[in-house]
Amino acid sequence: MSKGEKTPHSVIAVAKEDARFKAVEVRRLDGHVELLWAKELPAEQQTWNSFAIECGVATNADSREKTARRHSPAVVGLDSTGVAFYQISAPAVDDHEIAAIVKMQAESLLPLPPDQIEVAWRASHANNGNLDVTIAAARKEHLHKFAAAVKDFRPRTILLSCEGTAKAWQSLFSNRETQALVLSVGAENAQVCLVQNGLITRAGVLDMGMAALSPASETAALMDRFLHELQIMLTSFGWDGTGPWPVVVLSDGGEAIARLVEQLNAAGVSARALVADGANLRLPAGFGAKEAYEYRTPLGLALLALDRSSGALNLFDRVLQEQEAEKAASAWRSVALAGAAAAVMLIVLLLTVYFTDVASAKRWDAMARQPEFQASLQQQSLVKTVARNRPDMLELLTLINAGQNEGVVLDAFQFKKGQAVSVTGQADNMEQMWKFQANLREHKELKDAEIVNNARDSKTKKIKFTIAFQYKEFSKKEAAL
Asked: Secondary structure of 319-334 in the HEC alphabet?
């Protein structure tokens, strides 16, 4: 999350894993974090747009609703396939200087030109005057395509899914270790993360998952291949198994992952399974450890988005800014083209009107000279005069009774063409009568509202009054046709 952005109180987090789209909405309320809903959709023959419609953050083209309902801000997770991680050591200097060091190191490490690569970095706390800096890098083209694919969610930010996995381990599965080698094994692949203080330092993806290691297809050769590829990845991380990095496997509590942990231990990798306990998250009824495991990645992403100081690696800040700038430029181009087209059409219209008016003026001049036309004009003038001087009784009654006239009761009103309209009524006191007079004077259709007479009734003690006023053209003497 960029500096200056407000931390949301609720967030929708979305990720794609195990060939399924998954989303949750999580909110922070009264010091607690609770899960509001969770949804998933098979990714086969579906798109991010169709899932956005399913989640209620986008509308179907055939829907009567043209705009989506208001919803919480969204965060979307990008799987770390296609993202390279590096770790370098840098002197403890300010961020500006570290950024320059990272840029120089990245250019030497990466196989592509700098203008084709997007880089994000994060520095650890200084130790003996040096900083460990984690770098994540990916092709800009890959990031732009992903951002375009998820645009219907209008994401506030796009984070790496492995960062969500690390946050889920720390918040939902962890026994409060500060660092660990975390394995999150899905159906089709396995996410491997080195996590320190809840943050990714290195990450990678193995293209084997529980579907290949299940009892139906389990063979010694497959497990040997899985362990071999895991060892190669750990070696690339600089992990040798002797440091303070316990190996934890996130689990749904089922037998399949329990067997995998046994096989890891038999192969010399000391590992243990962790099941989500939900202590840090209020879950709906029926949403247990198995469901928390299924939605571990979007849950972790949501918790990251709710955490102002998450420090998550963000490869998409510039990508989203560039897309917004392109969208604005495209809008201006559309406006300019529309304006140019409108200007051309206006010129054509003006020329057409001009030449049409010249011809029409000649025809009208000839018509106006005819006696029938002059008689018709006189008749229309007479009709307009009668209509202008005819009183609109409904409007007159509405104007008289408008406003706050508490205590005022009208008994009668008199009107006659060419004379002032008068109303007779009674009020509890003089102030009510004066306020009624003031309300009449506020209407531009009623002019010169004056109290003609007033007197207190000896029996009822009420003030009886008569007020006269001019009503439009009706009260003028020349209106008496």
From this structure: HHHHHHHHHHHHHHHH
Q: Convert the pLDDT of each residue in 246-276 to its tens digit.
A: 889 999 888 889 988 988 888 888 889 999 8
* Contact predicate 123/196, CB 8 Å: no
CATH code, residues 10-315: 3.30.420.380
User: Strands 247-251, 271-275: parallel, antiparallel or unpaired by DSSP?
Assistant: parallel
List beta partners, residue 184: 191
Shared fold status for 10-315 and 389-479: no
What is the bridge-based pairing of β-strands 155-160 and 74-78? parallel
Torsion of CA 312, 317, 323, 328, to 10 degrees: 130
What's the full length of the chain, in residues?
481
Region 325-345: what's the mean pLDDT?
70
- Residue 468's Cβ-side half-sphere holds a number of Cα atoms within 13 Å equal to 7
If 0-12 CB within 10 Å is exposed, 13-18 middle and 19+ buried, where does residue 316 land? buried
Q: What distance in Å separates the CA atoms of residue 245 and residue 272, rounded to the nearest whole number?
A: 12
- Which 8-state DSSP code applies to residue 18? T
Question: Where do the structural domains in the chain lie, given as residue ranges?
Answer: 10-315, 339-384, 389-479
- CATH code for the domain defined by 389-479: 3.30.1360.100
Q: Are 98 and 131 in contact (CB under 8 A)?
A: yes
Can you tell me the distance from the alpha carbon of 181 to that of 196, in angstroms, rounded to the nearest whole number? 9
pLDDT over 60 at 218, yes or no: no
Give the amino acid at 132.
D
The Cα–Cα gap between 324 and 321 comes to 5
